[in-house]
Amino acid sequence: PRLLPLFGYFALLLPPLGAAAFSPSLDSDFTFTLPAGRKECFYQPMRKEASLELEYQVLDGAGLDIDFHLLSPKGETLVFDERKSDGVHMVETEDGDYMFCFDNTFSTISEKVIFFELVLDNMGEDGQDQEDWKKYVTGTDLLDMKLEDILESINSVKARLSKSVQIQTLLRAFEARDRNIQESNFDRVNFWSMVNLGVMVVVSAVQVYMLKSLFEDKRKSRT
């Protein structure tokens, strides 16, 4: 697979050969074009006891299908989807780089436009935020309020906003795929309409010629 430098990733360990990189992020999405007969792989570094959720959709291309592989840091196949247009998968992770690949080698003509989104949970940032908040939890009894409750409310709002952004991103992907299907159908209808029009013109010309030939006087005058 071809190396795709997406966002860049700085780590002590080198990434696997032929894989693209993501910077650690709680939510990342990407759209790319996969040529016919090609396979592209990406990797995502994960921590132990975290979770990795990945959703993909084929937005454009004949058949709207793709092969999908998800491999663990040990090289074990966790998920394998064959000739599917979309999929959602969540796995509990361990320390290491998880690799996921999109395979279009079964297609010899059509390229595919693929959208995918990564959602990472329990990556450690929230725990650090809570530790930062604990430094300010002093004298709450005098103020008759608890900063832990405020933190919980803020985290709840943050989670809901993140979910809303994720849903909006997925809706945009669905809209893009539906638009591509409609445009493909529009081009197909126009093409076959022109073919039918051409056939009608040819048939009409042949009918006129045949009718004209029936009324022609083919007798030869004698001299």
From TrEMBL:
This is TMED5 protein. The keyword Signal applies. Residues 1-21 form the signal peptide. It is found in: Endoplasmic reticulum membrane; Endoplasmic reticulum-Golgi intermediate compartment membrane; Golgi apparatus, cis-Golgi network membrane; Membrane. Residues 39-120 form the GOLD domain. The lineage of its organism: Eukaryota, Metazoa, Chordata, Craniata, Vertebrata. Belongs to the EMP24/GP25L family. InterPro entries: Emp24-like (IPR015720), GOLD_dom (IPR009038), GOLD_dom_sf (IPR036598). It comes from Brachypteracias leptosomus (short-legged ground-roller). The keyword Transmembrane applies.
